[in-house]
Write a structure and sequence with these properties.
The protein contains 13 helices and 7 strands. It is an alpha+beta fold and 357 residues long. The chain has a 5-stranded antiparallel sheet with strand order 1-4-7-3-2. The chain has a two-stranded antiparallel ribbon with strand order 5-6. Helix 3 packs parallel to helix 11, helix 4 packs parallel to helix 7 and helix 9 packs across helix 13. It is globular. The N and C termini lie far apart (45 Å).
Length: 357
């Protein structure tokens, strides 16, 4: 079952994506490591190693790795658009109809699935950690009631090349897709007279995985990623936070965490840095973000092996029974056996697309 207990807030300053941005000598660097002396040596060492798309890394692909960094530069250049003010006057709306329209627009613009959740305090970071937002406390006036949470699919053929460059190119492309879809929805909401905040790469107020876990889109699995019934972990998540009145979707449990992740372990077994907890106690499931990120720095990619190794990513569906029976552990045992017989440990594509060579 999904965890319903309130969780401790995350401080974005403590995430690797924020920590790797702290430049030695800067005020952010001085402040963070004054409070976290035990992490200084670890982080200094990590920052000295390669980096995603760097030309001195294992999987650097000349002419293609640059495209990955170009996508992240684009995201950095548009992140200031995240906060979208409301239009001049509110238009009278019907909650059910506008919810349906927003969902339809998301899918029309390229989203795979979309849902509406009620945003909770624990969804939000306590403080922001990146770039010019470093140290900003997330206060009540920055929060919204509703979260429009949506996913985009990452192409399986690209993800299955992980940890090589094609997988990270697909990942970075997906973050761009999420941002553009989110902005389109945010501007639509503005036209109705309401404001919104588009959570996008390098400009988040909340943790999108936590939000998605409280939606019917999927469940957070052993690898701490959202696992969806149809596409496994091969999705990226976007959230548009807003106060426009919407109809909240009822959460749904699929038995993925309880029945599949508890017996599968493939993400942990295949993890090259052994950063994924393999214990039977799901309350202990966590990612060692330092060892995980160290491998990213060495590879020059964001790895992605744990995404590819998930049987649900590969489209393994067992016997396609009704939703209620899919909560049965035997259903997932059949999925795992089918995956093992078809792919072994994982469906690894050893060749890059021809255009990358």
């Amino acid at each position: 079952m999904k965890n319903r207990k309130p969780e401790k807030k995350i401080d974005e300053r403590d995430t690797m994506f924020a920590r790797m941005k702290y430049v030695e000598g800067s005020k952010e660097y001085k402040d963070y490591y004054l409070r976290n002396k035990h992490l200084k040596e670890i982080d200094d060492n990590l920052r000295s190693k390669g980096g995603i798309g760097a030309d001195d890394t294992v999987f650097y692909n000349e002419g293609v790795s640059e495209a990955i960094n170009s996508n992240f530069k684009l995201l950095n250049d548009i992140k200031h658009l995240s906060k979208i003010e409301r239009g001049s006057e509110k238009i009278e709306i019907n909650e059910k109809r506008v919810t349906n329209i927003i969902k339809g627009l998301c899918k029309t613009y390229g989203a795979l699935d979309v849902s509406v959740v009620e945003l909770k305090d624990e969804h939000y970071y306590s403080h922001r950690g990146r770039d010019e937002f470093y140290g900003d406390e997330i206060t009540e006036n920055m929060k919204h009631k509703y979260g429009i949470v949506f996913t985009v699919q990452m192409e399986k053929e690209m993800i299955n090349t992980a940890p090589r460059t094609p997988a990270t190119l697909q990942s970075s492309k997906s973050y761009v897709d999420l941002s553009i879809i989110g902005l389109q929805i945010g501007y639509y909401i503005s036209s109705l007279g309401y404001d919104s905040f588009v959570n996008m790469d390098a400009n988040y107020l909340l943790n999108v995985v936590r939000v998605a876990n409280d939606s019917p889109l999927g469940e957070v699995g052993r690898n701490n990623l959202l696992i969806t019934p149809k596409n496994g972990a091969s999705v990226r998540i976007g959230v548009v936070a807003t106060n426009i009145p919407l109809v909240i979707d009822k959460n749904k449990t699929y038995g993925i965490k309880e029945h599949m992740c508890s017996i599968c372990n493939l993400c942990g077994v295949t993890c090259p840095s052994k950063s994924i907890d393999l214990s039977d106690d799901e309350n202990k499931w966590s990612i060692n973000q330092e060892t995980c990120y160290e491998r990213w720095m060495m590879f020059g990619t964001d790895c992605g092996i744990c995404i590819s190794s998930c049987p649900l990513t590969q489209g393994i569906k067992g016997d396609e029974r009704d939703e209620k029976s899919k909560l049965d552990k035997k259903y997932y045992e059949k999925i795992l056996l089918e995956h093992k017989n078809k792919y072994g440990t994982r469906n690894y594509i050893k060749e890059d697309p021809k255009w990358m060579k």
